[in-house]
Structures
1.
Amino acid sequence: MDYKLLRRHLHQSFICRQAISNIKNIVVATNAAISGLAELRSKSSRPIRHKTQSSPNPSVNFRDLYKKYNNGFTEPAVAELNSVNHFFNSADVKYEWSAGRFMDVPGESLKAKYSQQLETRIGYSGKKFPGKTYIPFELVNGLPEVAFLGKSNAGKSTLLNNLTTSQKRISLESTARSSRWAGFTKTLNSFNVGNELRIVDTPGYGFNSSIGQGDLTMQYLKERKELARTFLLISAEQGFGEHDLQIVDFMRDNGIPFEIVFTKMDKIRNIEKFEQSMERDRKFLQSTMARILFTNSSTSKSCKKRYGIDILRYVIFESCGLEPGLKPSRKKPQ
Ligand SMILES: Nc1nc2c(ncn2[C@@H]2O[C@H](COP(=O)(O)OP(=O)(O)OP(=O)(O)O)[C@@H](O)[C@H]2O)c(=O)[nH]1
Ligand SMILES: [Mg+2]
C-alpha cells in the first residue's frame, strides 16, 4: 500500500468530514439562532392590543358620567334633546359684535344713558321710541345671552363652533376663530343663534392673558343684564387649576349662575384615572350646585363622534328660558 496515497486519502476524507461537521454545526447553529430569534421575537412582540382596554372609548361613559355627577337634576327626554338639536342644526348663526371695553357691548352705553328710566320706569318727557315706549326697544327686549368662560386654551371658541355646527357635518364650521396658541381670543365676541339667543366667547384667563381682558370679562359677568348663564370650561386633561377655583369663588360671591363643562374628553385615555380626579374634587363640585357636563369637540380613532353636545345645547336652551319645540326665527340658508 502506498503510504503516501493513504495519508492523502485520509487527509482528504478528514477535511471532508470536518467540512461536513462544520456545515452541520453551521446548520445547527443557524437553526438555534432562528429558534432563539423566534423565541425572542415572541417574547418581545407587543401583546395584542384590545381597543377597549388600551384606549377606552370615552363615549361609552358619557351618559353614565352625566348621570353620576348630576344627581339632583332630571335628565331631559330624548324627544326634548332631538327638538333642541333640530333648533341648533337649522338655526342661522351670525357673528354680531366684539367688545374690548364693557361700554362697547351693544346697549350698554344706551343703558347708562337711560338708567334712571330703566330703573324707575317713570314717564320720560323726551323722545318717544317706536312701540310708544320711552326706552329704546332693544333695551327692553334684548336676546338672552350665555357666556363661555375658562382658562386660555380650554377650548371655548372650539366648543362654540361645535355647538353651532350641524351634527351631520364631520368637520367644524369656524364661526369663532380658534387656535392652538393660548390667549388667542382678545375681546368679547358675540354670535347670534337663530335670532333667539346669543353665545358670547370670552378671552381666556391665565397664560398670555392681560389684566384688562380679565377686568372686561368680570364686568361683563357682573353687570350684563341679558346674561342668562355662564359656562365655565375646564380642560379634562388638566382639571381644575388655581385660577378656575378663584373664578368659581368670584361667581359664587356675585351670585352669577353657572355650569361646568369639561372639554377635550377625547384626550382622556384612562377614564378610571379621570374619575379618580373627579372623586377628589367631588365635594368641591357638589358645593358649586352647578351641572357638570362632558364634551369633546375633536374626534379620533378612539372617539369617533362629538359627544355631550346635545345635553349642552339643551342646558343652554333651558338657561335662556326657551322651550324645546321652538323654531329659529332665522334659519340657515338652504
Ligand atoms: N383634542 C381636542 N382638542 C381640542 C378640543 N377643543 C379644543 N381643542 C384644541 O385646543 C386648542 C385651543 O382651542 P380654542 O378653542 O382656541 O381655546 P380657547 O379656550 O378659545 O383659547 P383662548 O382663545 O386662547 O382663550 C385648539 O388647538 C383646539 O383645536 C377638544 O375637545 N379635543
Ligand atoms: Mg378662544
2.
Amino acid sequence: MNNWNDWIEAQPQVVPMLVESIKKQRLAHAYLFDGQAGSGTMELAILLSKSFMCQEKQGANPCLTCLDCTRIDSGNHPDLHKIAPDGQSIKREQVDYLQKEFSYRGVESRQKVYIVSDADKMTGTAANTLLKFLEEPQGETLAILLTEQVENVLPTIRSRAQHIRFHPPLKEEIVKQLMENGIDQKHSSFLAELTENKEAALRLTEDDWSFQARGVVLQLMHELYTRPDQAIITLAEKWLPLMKERIHQEMGLEMMTLWLRDLLYIRVGKQGELVYSDFYESYKELSLSTSQRLITLSLAKVMEAKSQLSANVAVQLVMERLLFTIQEG
Ligand SMILES: [Zn+2]
C-alpha cells in the first residue's frame, strides 16, 4: 500500500483529491483526516508526508528510495513528528515540544510535517497552542490531524484544517484484522458485516451473544421457510429471550437480512460472497425451492420491521407480524 493507486478502492473520494493537490502543488497547510479505525487515515497521512517531502517523486507517488522516503519508512525522519495521546489526552507540553523541535530546525530543513493522532483528545490548552501553530504556518509545514470522532474536535481547529472524510473500512480489511485477532474466518466475515469497524466487531466478541444469536437466526430463518409452525416457537423460546435490548433486536434483524441476501446470492451464483458460508449446503436446496420474488419480498418485510422497531412498536408484535407475512408470501 505504498502508492496512491493502492488506496483508490478503499478511499475512492479521498485519493483523487489528494493526488490532484500534490500534482498541482496546492496542498493545504493543514488537513483533518476524519475516519474510523481501519479506514487508513494514518497510512495515508504517512503516504502524503512522503509525497510532500520526496524530491524524486513520480507524478504524485513518492520514489520510496531517496533519503526522505527511507527515513519516513523507518520512522526516524527528523522533520516528521507524530503526536499521540499520552495516557488519556494530548497535553500542552507535547505541542510545546513539537514547536520547539520545529523552530530548532527552522533554517536548515525544508518541508516539515506533523501528524496528530486522535486530535479530538487534545486538552483545551494543547488545542489552543496548536491553533496558534496552525494560524502561523512557518515555511512549508504540513499538519495532518487524525480523528475517529470529528464532533469532538474543537470547532476552531476544524475550521483551520481542510476536513477530509474517509470512507469506512472495506469489509475485507475488517475481516483480515479480525482474523489477525484470532477470530475464525466464519465469524470474522459475519462480524464484519454486522459492524462498522474492527473495534465494534471485537466488542461483540467480549461475550458469546453474537455467536448464540447467529445460531438462533440461522435456525429461525431455516424453519421459517421449511417448518413455519416451528419458527413461531423458536421465536418465542429463543429469539425473543436473546434479543432483550433494542440494539440486539436491530442486530437480530440485520442478521436476518444477511441470511436472505445469502439466499439471493446463491440463486445468482455468487457463493463466494456468502456471510453464512458454513450453511451453504442447506441454503442450496432452499434457494432452489424459494422464488426470487419471495426472497425480495421478505427483505422488504425485514426492512419494514426495522422501521417499526425504531417507531417503538413492541418487539414481539413486530416479529410475529414479520414471520406471518413472510410465511404467507
Ligand atoms: Zn523519495
